[in-house]
Write a structure and sequence with these properties.
The protein contains eight helices and twelve strands. The strands form three sheets. A seven-stranded parallel β-sheet has the order 2-12-11-9-8-6-5. It has a single domain, classed as Aldolase class I (TIM Barrel, Alpha-Beta Barrel). By secondary structure, the protein is an alpha/beta fold. Helix 2 links the parallel strand 5 and strand 6. About 30% of the residues lie in helices and about 15% in strands. Its cofactor is FMN. InterPro entries: Aldolase_TIM, DHO_dehydrogenase, Dihydroorotate_DH_2, Dihydroorotate_DH_cat, Dihydroorotate_DH_CS. This is Dihydroorotate dehydrogenase (quinone), mitochondrial. It is an enzyme of class 1 (oxidoreductase).
């Protein structure tokens, strides 16, 4: 959710009871409802990241137009949300029990980012369809209501609209039959009865030095390095408001292991990046991990879990 809107909702909603469902291993699942497509009986090995005890990196995809010079390292999302489709292996159909798991070659964490299509009149129906189609592949689901360029999307950030949307998405998830490990957790910027929060991916403001750039007047959600301080301060505030009781994903301006470490110390149990990956490529990830390990050793932490929220205590 864009920072300007998130800040307004924090104190209004977070003081209400936030219920976090237990987070266990990956899921076996099938459909109970006859109106929904069949879900393969399948599972992925390994534990979910959102236990708070294990940490990793998520590469968040999207449609972005970059605006960069030597002083400004950022991306500005101009295009808005686009429609997508589920890909399966060439030898199987979406209903086949051997459906390909999102093209994954091995173990790891896969978050599914749910959003509305640009031209949809019933936004919630798009999110529900996303749950029906993709939740069996997900370690967690994200209810994305943050794009400033998708018509009508940010109207879903209103308190009533967001609560109604969350209820429909939860109902779609819960109508499916899951194994004893339970369904994938749901995450959104601010809402009741969710399993985690994402803090916070873009801003429609133009902080220094972006405000001095000729492109600063262009529309779009700003991400990247200029967002780092704003998003980290909000992450820290949210960690203190929730008292560390629910997982927080920290994002916004991460481009180094030191950046990831600061997010973790501010309360993140998971960090997410996109802009730096667009410029640094796949080699950025092992570098961030190595730098993060150095930060932990330097400050005497035996694990990442020990560092979560260290700057908020």
């Amino acid at each position: 959710m864009a920072i300007r809107t998130a800040g307004k909702l924090f104190k209004d909603l977070i003081r209400q009871r936030v219920i976090s469902t237990p987070i266990g291993p990956s899921r076996h699942c099938s459909y109970a409802a006859t109106s929904a497509p069949k879900i393969p009986h399948s599972s992925k090995k390994g534990r979910r990241l959102l236990t708070g005890a294990t940490i990793g990196l998520v590469i968040a995809g999207g449609a972005y137009v970059s605006t960069v010079d030597e002083a400004t390292f950022c991306c500005c999302s101009w295009l808005g949300s686009k429609g997508g489709k589920l890909e399966t292996s060439s030898t199987s159909s979406p209903s086949n029990d051997e459906a390909k798991h999102g093209g994954k070659a091995g173990p790891g964490i896969l978050g599914v980012n749910l959003g509305k299509n640009k031209s949809s009149e019933d936004a919630a129906a798009d999110y529900v369809q996303g749950v029906h189609t993709l939740s069996q592949y997900a370690d967690y689901l994200v209810i994305n209501v943050s794009s400033p360029n998708t018509p009508g999307l940010r109207m879903l950030q209103g308190r009533k609209q967001l609560k109604d949307l969350v209820k429909r998405v939860q109902a779609a998830r819960d109508e499916m039959q899951w194994g004893e490990e339970g369904p994938p957790p749901l995450l959104v910027a601010i809402a009741l009865r969710l399993d985690g929060l994402i803090i916070s991916n873009t801003t429609i403001s133009r902080p220094d030095p972006v405000d001095k750039n000729p492109v600063s007047a262009e529309a779009g959600g700003l991400s990247g390095k200029p967002l780092f301080d704003l998003s980290t301060n909000i992450l820290k505030e949210m960690y203190m408001l929730t008292r560390g009781k629910i997982p927080l994903i920290g994002c916004g301006g991460i481009s180094s292991g030191e950046d990831a470490y600061k997010k973790i110390r501010s309360g993140a149990t998971l960090v997410q990046l996109y802009t730096a990956f667009a410029y640094g490529g796949p080699a950025l990830i092992p570098r961030i991990k190595a730098e993060l390990a150095e930060c932990l050793e330097r400050d005497g932490f035996k694990s990442i879990h020990e560092a979560v929220g260290a700057d908020c205590r």
